[in-house]
Amino acid sequence: MTRSSRTSPPPGTPVPPAQLGAPPPGSALGSHYSRCFGCGSDHPTGLHLAAVTPDSTTVEATFTVGEAHQGAPMLAHGGVLAAAMDEVLGMSVYLFRKPYVTARLETDYVLPVPVGTTLHLRAWCNGITGRKAYLEAEGRVGAPDGPVAVRAAALFVEVSMRHFAEHGDLAAITAEHQDYEVNP
Ligand SMILES: CCCCCCCCCCCC(=O)SCCNC(=O)CCNC(=O)[C@H](O)C(C)(C)COP(=O)(O)OP(=O)(O)OC[C@H]1O[C@@H](n2cnc3c(N)ncnc32)[C@H](O)[C@@H]1OP(=O)(O)O
């Protein structure tokens, strides 16, 4: 992965262990919001990512490129692929049981991805220091060990739940997840 210093953890940054309250190894990860473009089942043209965590710290997910996701004819749009990476990265950092948002996302496009392709995504954490989480992801064509089509590195920044209340609609999220608190 070609990544900048802004998405590379400073030397010595620890990789956190699995957190208390994280889904057990092998758990399916549900959607955080039913209308989310990345994972929501109620989004008509969304990515509908289906994800599991094999070990409570990383995420594996699949996404099948549909006709609504085209850029060039019958090829995935690069922005859609970046959205898929953002989503799987967001799912993985949430395993650390704090709210984070993407601050920076860097993407390498390695292979064209035709409509109908199932991408096998994987995301993991390279370290957390203070509010900053350094994450990485890859998408492979057709199988978990297929050729890499897309790679991403990201910086996520921890926010309070007030971020979602002040700038968005926290009530819409809490209506679906009773475990989210605005003032934990
Ligand atoms: C309900 C739950 C459901 C869970 C919801 C799950 C959603 C999953 C969806 C996928 C995730 C998304 O797409 S999230 C949506 C896309 N992202 C966003 O909308 C975020 C918009 N940006 C912001 O709100 C803000 O810029 C923040 C929160 C990222 C940072 O603002 P801030 O809180 O004032 O903090 P700030 O001091 O600026 O930055 C903190 C530290 O991070 C560094 N930093 C900040 N931005 C950058 C950057 N682009 N590149 C490098 N470094 C950066 C700063 O230098 C600083 O380092 P130092 O000085 O401390 O060393």
Automatic annotation (TrEMBL):
Keywords: Apoptosis, Cell membrane, Cell projection, Cytoplasm, Fatty acid metabolism, Hydrolase, Lipid metabolism, Membrane, Transit peptide. It catalyses: dodecanoyl-CoA + H2O = dodecanoate + CoA + H(+); tetradecanoyl-CoA + H2O = tetradecanoate + CoA + H(+); decanoyl-CoA + H2O = decanoate + CoA + H(+); (5Z,8Z,11Z,14Z)-eicosatetraenoyl-CoA + H2O = (5Z,8Z,11Z,14Z)-eicosatetraenoate + CoA + H(+). It comes from the Bacteria. GO terms for molecular function: hydrolase activity. Pfam families: 4HBT. InterPro entries: HotDog_dom_sf, THEM4/THEM5_acyl-CoA_thioest, Thioestr_dom. Residues 1-25 are annotated as: Disordered. One of its GO terms (cellular component) is cytoplasm. It is a peripheral membrane protein. Residues 76-140 form the Thioesterase domain. PANTHER family: ACYL-COENZYME A THIOESTERASE THEM4. This is Acyl-coenzyme A thioesterase THEM4. It comes from Nonomuraea pusilla.
